[in-house]
Structures are given as structure tokens and as C-alpha cells.
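INTERNAL AUDIT FORM
Audit reference: QA-55
Scope: verify that the stored structure record matches its stored sequence.
Auditor: D.O.
Record contents follow.
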Amino acid sequence: MKKCANLYLTFVFLLLYIPIFYLIVYSFNKAGDMNSFTGFTWEHYGEMIADSRLMLILVQTFFLAFLSSLIATAIGTFGAIFVYQARKKNQNAILSLNNILMVAPDVMIGASFLILFTTLANLFHFKLGFLTVLFSHVAFSIPIVVLMVLPKLKEMNDDMINAAYDLGATPWQMLKEVMLPYLTSGIISGFFMAFTYSLDDFAVTFFVTGNGFSTLSVEIYSRARKGISLEINALSTVVFLFSILLVVGYYFISQDKEAKDA
């Protein structure tokens, strides 16, 4: 049974990672296409760096992901606390509403945001752009943060909170000195998950982005329609390596947190 499980896991990981490594290998292809590998070159990475529009979009995408994740983490953390403190009946209803946003198709969410922003734009005379994309990313990231933080709240012993109040702590002091430190690992998990979702989102962003603002996913899609360029392979490789660094960073942060709590 264990052997079959290992074979299954090996098959799944190969299925997931072979296309990625195939893309990475051809980002160094001298031939300039993905038909055959003729030699090693850094040329496509040089073209990527020299493409000022692509570099600007890269910076915009990471800034958007960082800012939206930060805002969503703050709102989602306090949202999870609110859900935890709500009555059981209300808690289930709120969680159901939260989970609907998690399972709803991205196309439907993107289209609904487009209708909302178009209506507001006509009333208040603004254009689709960075702020509309930021608002959308914050909105779909909040439910993710709630689901990451809420389990940590349920693990927490209520006696810790009661002890803080018995010692004369105000609600703000209890939150700052007891609750938030205990929730740190869940908050960090929520931030990284929100960051990842924001970084690679296409469907929602495609609907709400304007002519003056773009993200990597939208830009790669528009360029791929004209034909695959190995410059895109190089960019995808850089983003993939950065994602690995995020995962490794999150692993060490969580391990350090667990060591301190032990």
C-alpha cells in the first residue's frame, strides 16, 4: 500500500513539475523557439531585462500583490476575530457567505466587479486602473485570510483571554499582547496565500484592469496570443524561482515560530 502511495505521489509531482521544468529549460534555448534545443544562452533574459514595459509591469504586479495582501490580511484577521466571537448560528451564516467567495467562479466575480466599477465610474468620473484592481484583489483575498486565521483562533485557549482581563488588561492590550502574537503563524499563512493568489490572478484582473495599468498575467496572455516568445519563458522562470523563495521563507518563518512556541 505504501509503495502504491509513493508511486502515485511521484506520478502527480512529475505531472505538475515536468511542464514547468520544460518551460525553464527552453528559456535558455539559443534557437529562439520551443521546437528543439540547439544551445545554451542568456539572451532571452537580457531581452527580458531590456524590455522596460515588461519590467514596469513586473514591479507593478509585485507591488499590487504586496499591498493587496497587506490590506486583506489586516481586514481578514479582524474579520476572523469577529466571526469567532459571533454566536454559533451567526458564525455559520457568516462562514457560508465567506466560503461562497472562495468557490465562486473567477469569471463571475470579475464580471460583477466590472459592472460595479463601470457604474461607479459613470457616476464619479474615474477610469479603471490600479485602484480598481487593488480593490478587487483585496476583496477576493479577505476570505482566504479568514480561513487561515480562524483555525488558530479555535485552537487558542479562552483562559488566556480571561486571564489577561483578570489582570486588568484593556481589550486593546489583550489583542496586542495575547491574541495577535498567538495568531502570528495564521496571519503569516494568510498573507502568503493572499500574495500568491494576487500574483497569478488573471480572470478577475482581466475584467477590471484599465488601459493604463496591467499585471503579468494579463500581459503574458496578450503576448501569448501573438505567439510564444522565450522572453516570456525567462520571465516565468524568474517568477517561479521567486515563488520558491517565498515558500522557503514561509517554511523557515513558521518553523521559527513553532520553535518559540514550544
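Auditor finding: record pair retrieved intact. The radius of gyration is 22 Å.
Action required: none
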